[in-house]
Write a structure and sequence with these properties.
This protein is mainly α. It has helices spanning 13-26, 30-45, 57-60, 85-93, 113-125, 142-155, 159-178, 184-196, 206-209, 255-261; strands at 5-11, 54-56, 77-83, 139-141. The longest helix has 20 residues, at 159-178.
């Protein structure tokens, strides 16, 4: 129809079944039902602070998972969305974007803001679940979802990565207390830590393209007091995790995969 933009999202089969129930209950077409749901969703979300807006747990966990290998069957289903372009843009604007995700990023790290808006709008009108989603809180505040992401990202950090961050924390604390100058190794520690603290660091290709060495062992006197010895931030650190097979994209781990593989 004129005046509408058309696009497609991919959602869980149980979400599509819930949409069918809403459509039957309202006696409207699927396209009109989706437009109504998005309109209601925007009216609710745009009135809330960003951290209090709602997202669906399937967005946070990237569920259904995309095919792991090219040619593998998909477990999600397509849904056509026809709505005014302004409505689609507003829907994307109030949706969840996890740190490091971008609209045109690679697979797991693609920000699926419109999918999140549609899925959340459906869930608010008609709750749904399946074997995977059963027992999980379906709707989360953005603030809570980002907290869950931070926990998973921290739990799946490698030991050398944690060692670099710990070394930087100790170094920053010493600098704050002593106002000492930075030597080359100090600057290097801080540069590595700053890179790890960036949004994209959790899925950066360089995490798994080569082993991340342990941080250098600075001989800066510790501020803990005389006789405490030098700060050994990287001491007794285990080697980096092995690189994944070369025929899969490095760093390709979603929150759901991380929880399963690391038994969170």
């Amino acid at each position: 129809m004129s005046g509408y933009s058309e696009t497609n999202v991919r959602i869980a089969p149980c979400a599509l079944e819930a949409l069918s129930r809403i459509t039957a209950r309202r006696g409207t077409s699927r396209d009109e039902t989706v437009r109504q749901l998005l309109t209601d969703h925007l009216a609710s979300q745009e009135q809330k602070p960003p951290e209090d807006r709602l997202t669906h747990i399937s967005t946070v966990l990237r569920y259904p998972r995309p095919p792991r290998w090219r040619g593998d069957p998909r477990t999600d289903v397509p849904l056509r969305v026809r709505a005014p372009a302004s409505v689609l843009e507003r829907a994307r604007a109030v949706s969840l974007r996890l740190p490091g995700q971008h609209p045109r990023a690679y697979r797991d790290y693609q920000g699926r803001m419109l999918t999140d808006a549609v899925t959340t709008a459906i869930a608010c009108a008609e709750p749904f679940d399946d074997d995977f989603l059963t027992g999980l809180t379906p709707l989360l505040r953005h603030g809570a979802a980002l907290g869950l992401w931070r926990l998973a990202a921290a739990a799946t950090s490698t030991r050398p990565e944690k060692a670099w961050l710990q070394a930087a924390t100790a170094l920053r604390a010493d600098l704050h207390r002593t106002d000492a100058s930075l030597d080359f190794e100090d600057q290097h520690i801080l540069r590595v830590a700053e890179a790890l603290e960036q949004e994209e660091s959790w899925h950066a290709l360089t995490r798994f393209e080569s082993d991340l060495p342990c941080p250098p062992l600075p001989d800066r006197p510790s501020s803990r007091g005389a006789g405490a010895g030098p700060v050994r931030a990287g001491q007794a650190v285990a080697p980096a995790v092995p690189r994944p097979p070369t025929n899969r994209r490095p760093g390709g781990t979603t929150l759901a995969q991380a929880a399963q593989e690391h038994q969170l």
